[in-house]
Structures are given as structure tokens and as C-alpha cells.
Amino acid sequence: MTHDNSRKSVKNLTLKENKINKLTLETKHKQNRTREAFSLLELLVVIAILGMLASFVVPAVIDSKDKAQRSLTCTQLADIGKTLENFYADQGTYPETEEGLQALTSNPDSDKYPQYPRKPYYKKLPKDTWKTPITYIKKGNSFELISYASDRKEGGEDVAEDIVYPGCDDKK
Known about the structure:
Glycoprotein, Type 4 Pilin, 3-stranded antiparallel sheet, 8% strand, rod-shaped
């Protein structure tokens, strides 16, 4: 009988060990399964952090884009200004306001501008970085070039403020 008891106790021990092993495996499996995804709270925290970062980064990027466009437009105006200086050197005068910058693409009056080169100063007039024509105004023996900037209207404030040459390169 002792032998039977010892057999039963070994059998019970083996059953207990199997149950413990099975429970351990189930627990590990449940733990692994619960870590397969993030909780809703964790996702909300990450989204909130990304939103805060975006609120700092996006305005800085937009601001630098506006500054770059304004700077490029000023450079374009300066280039057109140098071309107008060449026109003045060739013709002894700037084009009239009414003739505008078109005088740089074709001779508006061959009697008035006899020294006009065979090839025009420009094949096509450049536009500002907002794809808007540039305004030309003759002022006696000088001129003014104006880009109406991002709002494409006269006036404006901040990044929509008109860009005027000469003078815009002083604001860089």
C-alpha cells in the first residue's frame, strides 16, 4: 500500500506540476497578448505631444517661407533695377511709366530710343515669387519697382506688406 500511495503522490505531484506549468504558460501568453497594442491613453498622450510639437514647428516653417519669398522678390526687383540702369545707359532715360517694363521686352518707340539693342533686355518679363506682375513707376531721373507681395494688393501689413525697390534690400 505504501507503494500505491507513493505512486498516487507522484501522480498527484505530476498533475500539479502540469497544472502549474499550464497556468504559467497561460499567464505568459496573456501578458504577451496584452502588450501587442498600445492603450487608448498611451495613444492620446503621444498625439498630444505631437500636436504640441507641431504648434511650435509649423509657424516657424511658414515664417521662414514668407521671409524667403520676400527676399527672393527683392533680389528679382534688384535684377530688374540693374536692367533698367542698362536701359538708361543705352537710351539716356528710363522708360516712361506708361511704357512700363514692357519697354524692356520690345522697343516702344524707335524714334525715342534709337540705341535700343537688337535683342531686347528681356524675352519675357519676370514676375514676383507670387506670380504677380511687377509695377514700374518712373520718378524723374529715377524709378520705383513694386511687388504687392502675398496679398497681391496695394498696401498690406507684415508678410503682405508691399516690397519696394530701391529700399527693400535695406530690410533684409
